[in-house]
Every structure is written in structure tokens, then in C-alpha cells.
């Protein structure tokens, strides 16, 4: 810790003297040492010349003695002897250097160039022959050797050197150089044979493409180039022949030759073949990560080339085909990157369905996409992750039914979907219902009933009960509906909607007593999700049956359970209707409600009640009764109160609206008078204090 603190910069203030970049460069230039040139040696006679040679040779020998392994010293020494036309000495220097490092290809090349520069052809041949025998894998030595033979015009000797080189299986450029040499000599048959040997020696897409390019541009033989392209597609392995660049080069060649239909066929075959190969990879569990990045880029270039070709040479149908092919490639890329991207599968299948409808083709492609999509089961057992996945099955079944008109396959799709859902954890009512409705459309009512019965046991959702009951009701099976309602209510006794629908069923078939019994049983339940709806339906039922007294009793029973203002308003409106006792009874009900709410201090509810009462008096009362209600209406007053949080801490003042009723003012009159007197006393005190202050001044 102490060493770190010592190394830390303590003073971060700028230096008093700032140094510029110009100053640094000027100082660096001033401190450079002067470059000392070698003296110019002037030689006047042969003796001085020999003395100079001895000195220089001694200098080179000393350098070699100090750094014997440094090849540059040897090369400079040999170049010095060459400049002085001492060729034997130069050769001796190279031979001595080869004894030090005989496997240095650069040294052999410099030795051969010495002989070539001075036109010692045979000596150059000997040096290069020794070099390639010792280092047969060094290509530039062979290039130099064949260059020498071709420059001197010895074609047979040059061909012999090339043949010796080919025995060592050099790289692609060596074979291409051999073929170009034969072409320059006018021996095109031998050049073609060399390229065939090259393709056989290296059976790859690279060799075949270079062979085809040579045949087209150098040999000017289009038939040979086409034969090479076709052989590449047939003879090479799939991982080599099915590369995008092979098809792209082949199609571009046919386009240059004016064979547009052949080029179009090649493009279509390539895109179809590459897409099928990618799908096969997905089936075998491979990923696009195993495909080289350059291959994916070449596929994109192939597709762009196809688009450009169709724009120049194609028609509307061809352009549509290439657009669809591009969309397929994009969707394949999406589903490959994320197989659980179900939205991509939806769009992919929809695109293929639209294309199928326009072209009139069979549904093999769409069915294949759906099969691939449903094979990607969500990895987790969370229902939220399964929702989009289940729609894939539903759309698949709808496609089989509506597009292919194959109800049997659609039913099998639903069966497979139901088998894959983990019903002990969660289920999907829509799948059960759609499968049952499909059985009905197939006129297999027994299977539909069995399936819905199984759904009640495994799923037991409200929608399954309601749809099953609607099915049986549509067929007039009332007894089956009653049995289903019994099971429905056993599973969900709190469901007011189920009680109401059951009672409506009994009422619709004329079973009034059964309907009333069901309502009584429903309102007697300990827990209900929407009791207000159930009571309303019960009261409406009694009113429709003309049982005003029973409806009144229901209102009274309901008011014992809850004194909600809406119940009071509904009760009063009932009394004022034809089924009730009349307007006076309605006013009495309104008055009862008002008195109870006044005692309970329910101000907002009293306002709602008075508003409803006023509306009622406008429609059914007279001016006197309306004036009475108007006199009871409150006055809205803005007040302030302290706002607190859950712990009781004060958060600040807030404004709110309060209601002041006329009948409550008498009770508050005394308090109001006391407050007024206190305000007057405070005002008087303030005036007295101000006057005393003036006297002191």
C-alpha cells in the first residue's frame, strides 16, 4: 500500500513551463549526429586497384568471420566480386556460403541470378538443378528454373522441368503456369491435359472453377468450360459441389454465353438445393454455426445475383419466384437463429400458404414447415411459453381442414397436440373445443362427446362446460345439459354465471319451480363471485313471472345483506313501476334509504340517491314533490385535510370536496357560531397589538 501511494501523482496542477511539439522536434534535430559519408577512393593504376580489392576483400572476410551465419554478408561479398568481373571468386563466395547454410532458398536464388545476369546459362541451369533437387518444395526455385528454359527457347527442356515439378504435387498456380506455358507455345491439347491432371490431383471446387475460368478466357473453349462446370456438380463431394460460388460461377458463365434459360435453371436449382440442404441440417440437429461464414456470404451473393439476372432477363413470374425465394431464405435464417421464434414460423407458413394458393401447388411445403415448427417444443413447463406454440398446432389443423380439406389429418393434428400438452400442470381449453367441433363437422358426435368428457376431467375450465352445454342444447338434449350443469356447479359453486344460465335453461323449458329452486340454492351459497348479478337475475325472473310480492321480498332480503345505494334505487324504481305498489311506495323507499344513509354518515351515497330520486320525481311526481327533493340536495364545499401514508406519517395537506346537507346545518350551527366568535376575537387582538406598537413608536 505504501509503494502505491508513493508512485501516485500528488500534484495534478499544470506545469509552469509548457513544452510544445515544435520544441521537441527542434531539440531532436539539434541533437542528431552528423552523417559521415564514406570517402571517395580514386584509383590511378593497376597496383592501387589490386590494393583496393585486397582491402575490400579483407573487410568482407572480417565481416564473414565475425558473423558467419549472416547470409547478407556473403551476398554483398559475391556482388562485390561480380561488380569487379571476378566471376570465379563470386562463385567461390556462394559455394562457401552454401557450405554454411545449404538449405537457404534465397541464397540459391541469388546464386542463380548471378549466372543469369551474366548470361552463363548452363551454369545457371546447373545451380537451379542442384537447388530444386535439394529443395523440391520451394516453388520460386522451380519458377526461376522454367523461366530460364523458356527464355532461352528450349521448349522440350522447359517441359521436362515442369514434369519434374509436377511429380512433387505443387500448388494450384504451378499447374496453371504449366498450362499457360503450353498455351503460349500453341500446344492447347497438352495444356488441356495439364489442367485435367490438375483437377484430378486436387478434386475441389477451387480447382474445377479455375479450370473452367482458364478454359473460357484463355483457351476460348466454351464447351470445355461447360463440361468442367457440369463435372464439378457431378463428380465432387456434396460439401464441395453444393457451394454457392460453384452455382454462381456456372450461371454467370451461361449468361455470358447468352444461354439465359440455362442460367435461370441453374439459379433455381442452386437455391432449391441449398435450401433443402439447410433444412436437412436442421433435421439432423446441426446448426448454421457449422457452416463457414464465407459460405453464408456467398449464398447471399448468389441470391443477389439471381435477383439482378431476373431483373435484366426475366418476366413478372420469375421476379415473383425470386422474391419468394428471398423471403424463404430470410425466414430460414430467423428460425435457424431461434427455433422457438414462433412468430417467424407463423409468418413463414403464411407466406407459403399464400404462394400455394396463387400457384395451385400441393401443400407439401406448408405441411413440412408446420411439422418443423411443432417439433420445437418449449423448453420450460411455463404456460406462458406454450401459448404461442399451441397456436401453431391450431393453425396447422385449420390449414389441413380449410386448405387441404382433409378432416382426418386435421383430427390427427389435434390428437397429437393433446398428447403433447402436460395436462397435470396446465391445459388449453381452446384445443379441446376445436378438436370436438371438428369431430362434429366430421359427423362423429360420439367422439366429440367422449373428447369433451375427457376435457372436463383433465382440464375442467369454464369454457369447456359452456361450449359442451351449448352443443347439447343445440341438439335439444336438455337432460344432458342438466347433468353438465350439475357437474359445472360442483366444480365451480361460486360461479354466478353458471347458476344464472342453469336457471335460464329451466325457465326456457317452462320449469318455473325448478328455476326458482335453482336461484334459491344459488343465493344461499356462502361465497359467490358476482352476487349482485345473481340477485338481479332472480328479481327480474320474479318480475317477469308477475310475482311482485316475491320480488319485493327478495329486495328486502338483499337489503338485509347489503345496504348498497344501487339496491335502494332499484327497489324504489321497482315500487314506482307497474309491478310495484305505486309512486308513494317508491317515495317511502327513497325516504327509508335516505334516513339510513344519513344515520350512517354516507354522504356520497346520499348524493347518488337524491339524484336518482330527483329523476324519478321529474318523470312521475309533481312540482311540490320535486321541490322537496331539491331542498334536500347538498352544497359542495372545498376543504383541506392532512394526507398520511400507511404508517401514519404526515405527507402534507390536500384539497377535497365535501357535501353539506341542509338538514345537517342545524346540528352544526352552534359550532359555526363559536368559530365565528373566535375569528372576531382574533381580529380584535391583532388590531389592539398594532395600536400599541404605534404608541411605542
Automatic annotation (TrEMBL):
GO terms for biological process: mRNA processing; RNA splicing. InterPro entries: HAT, HAT_PRP39_C, Syf1-like, TPR-like_helical_dom_sf. GO terms for cellular component: spliceosomal complex. Keywords: mRNA processing, mRNA splicing, Nucleus, Repeat, Spliceosome. Signal peptide: none annotated. It comes from the Eukaryota. It is found in: Nucleus. Involved in pre-mRNA splicing and cell cycle progression. Required for the spliceosome assembly and initiation of the DNA replication. Belongs to the crooked-neck family. This is Uncharacterized protein.
Amino acid at each position: 500500500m505504501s509503494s502505491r501511494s508513493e508512485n501516485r501523482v500528488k500534484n495534478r496542477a499544470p506545469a509552469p513551463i509548457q513544452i510544445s511539439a515544435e520544441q521537441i522536434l527542434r531539440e531532436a534535430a539539434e541533437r542528431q549526429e552528423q552523417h559521415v559519408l564514406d570517402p571517395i577512393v580514386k584509383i590511378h593504376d593497376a597496383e592501387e586497384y589490386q590494393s583496393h580489392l585486397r582491402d575490400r576483400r579483407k573487410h568482407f572476410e572480417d565481416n564473414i568471420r565475425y558473423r558467419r551465419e549472416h547470409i547478407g554478408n556473403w551476398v554483398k561479398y559475391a556482388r562485390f566480386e561480380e561488380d569487379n568481373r571476378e566471376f570465379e571468386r563470386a562463385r567461390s563466395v556462394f559455394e562457401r556460403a552454401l557450405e554454411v547454410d545449404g538449405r537457404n532458398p534465397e541464397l540459391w536464388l541469388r546464386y542463380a541470378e548471378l549466372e543469369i545476369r551474366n548470361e552463363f546459362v548452363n551454369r545457371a541451369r546447373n545451380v537451379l538443378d542442384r537447388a530444386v533437387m535439394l529443395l523440391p518444395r520451394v516453388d520460386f526455385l522451380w519458377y526461376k528454373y522454367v523461366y530460364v528454359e523458356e527464355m532461352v527457347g528450349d521448349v522440350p527442356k522447359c517441359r521436362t522441368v515442369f514434369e519434374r515439378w509436377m511429380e512433387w504435387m505443387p500448388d494450384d498456380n504451378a499447374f496453371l503456369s504449366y498450362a499457360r506455358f503450353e498455351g503460349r507455345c500453341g500446344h492447347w491439347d497438352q495444356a488441356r491435359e495439364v489442367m485435367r491432371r490438375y483437377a484430378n490431383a486436387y478434386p475441389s471446387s477451387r480447382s474445377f472453377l479455375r479450370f473452367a475460368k482458364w478454359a473460357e478466357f484463355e483457351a476460348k473453349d466454351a464447351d470445355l468450360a461447360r463440361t468442367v462446370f457440369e463435372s464439378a456438380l457431378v463428380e465432387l463431394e456434396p460439401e464441395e459441389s453444393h457451394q454457392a460460388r460453384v452455382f454462381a460461377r456456372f450461371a454467370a458463365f451461361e449468361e455470358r454465353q447468352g444461354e439465359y434459360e440455362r442460367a435461370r435453371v441453374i439459379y433455381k436449382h442452386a437455391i432449391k438445393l441449398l435450401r433443402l440442404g439447410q433444412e436437412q441440417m436442421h433435421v439432423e440437429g446441426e446448426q448454421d454455426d457449422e457452416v463457414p461464414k464465407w459460405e453464408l456470404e456467398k449464398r447471399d451473393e448468389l441470391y443477389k445475383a439471381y435477383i439482378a439476372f431476373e431483373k435484366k432477363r426475366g418476366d413478372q413470374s420469375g421476379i415473383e419466384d425470386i422474391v419468394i425465394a428471398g423471403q424463404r431464405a430470410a425466414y430460414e435464417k430467423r428460425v435457424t437463429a431461434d427455433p422457438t421464434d414462433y412468430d417467424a414460423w407463423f409468418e413463414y407458413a403464411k407466406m407459403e400458404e399464400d404462394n400455394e394458393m396463387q400457384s395451385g401447388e400441393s401443400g407439401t411445403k406448408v405441411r413440412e414447415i408446420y411439422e418443423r415448427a411443432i417439433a420445437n417444443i418449449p423448453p420450460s413447463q411455463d404456460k406462458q411459453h406454450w401459448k404461442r406454440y399451441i397456436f401453431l398446432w391450431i393453425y396447422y389443423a385449420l390449414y389441413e381442414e380449410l386448405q387441404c380439406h382433409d378432416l382426418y389429418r386435421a383430427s390427427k393434428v389435434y390428437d397429437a397436440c393433446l398428447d403433447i400438452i402436460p395436462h397435470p400442470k396446465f391445459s388449453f381449453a381452446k384445443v379441446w373445443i376445436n378438436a370436438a367441433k371438428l369431430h362434429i363437422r366430421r359427423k362423429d358426435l360420439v367422439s366429440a362427446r367422449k373428447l369433451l368428457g375427457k376435457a372436463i376431467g383433465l382440464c375442467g375450465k369454464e369454457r369447456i362446460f359452456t361450449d359442451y352445454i351449448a352443443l347439447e342444447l343445440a341438439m335439444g338434449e336438455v337432460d344432458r345439459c342438466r347433468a353438465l350443469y350439475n357437474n359445472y356447479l360442483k366444480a365451480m359453486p361460486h360461479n354466478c354465471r353458471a347458476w344464472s344460465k342453469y336457471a335460464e335453461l329451466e325457465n326456457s323449458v317452462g320449469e318455473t319451480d325448478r328455476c326458482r329452486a335453482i336461484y334459491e340454492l344459488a343465493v344461499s351459497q356462502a361465497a359467490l363471485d358476482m352476487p349482485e348479478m345473481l340477485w338481479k337475475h332472480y328479481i327480474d325472473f320474479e318480475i317477469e313471472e308477475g310475482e311482485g310480492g316475491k320480488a319485493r321480498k327478495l329486495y328486502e332480503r338483499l337489503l338485509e345483506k347489503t345496504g348498497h345505494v344501487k339496491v335502494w334505487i332499484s327497489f324504489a324504481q321497482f315500487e314506482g313501476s307497474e309491478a310495484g305498489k305505486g309512486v308513494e311506495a317508491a317515495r317511502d323507499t327513497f325516504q327509508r334509504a335516505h334516513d339510513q344513509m344519513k344515520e350512517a354518515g354516507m354522504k356520497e351515497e346520499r348524493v347518488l340517491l337524491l339524484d336518482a330520486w330527483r329523476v324519478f320525481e321529474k318523470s312521475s311526481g309533481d312540482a311540490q314533490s320535486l321541490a322537496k327533493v331539491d331542498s334536500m340536495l347538498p352544497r359542495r364545499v372545498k376543504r383541506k385535510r392532512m394526507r398520511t401514508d400507511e404508517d401514519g406519517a404526515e405527507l402534507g395537506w390536500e384539497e377535497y370536496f365535501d357535501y353539506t346537507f341542509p338538514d345537517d346545518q342545524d346540528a352544526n350551527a352552534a359550532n359555526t357560531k363559536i368559530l365565528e366568535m373566535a375569528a372576531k376575537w382574533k381580529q380584535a387582538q391583532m388590531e389592539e397589538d398594532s395600536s400599541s406598537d404605534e404608541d411605542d413608536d
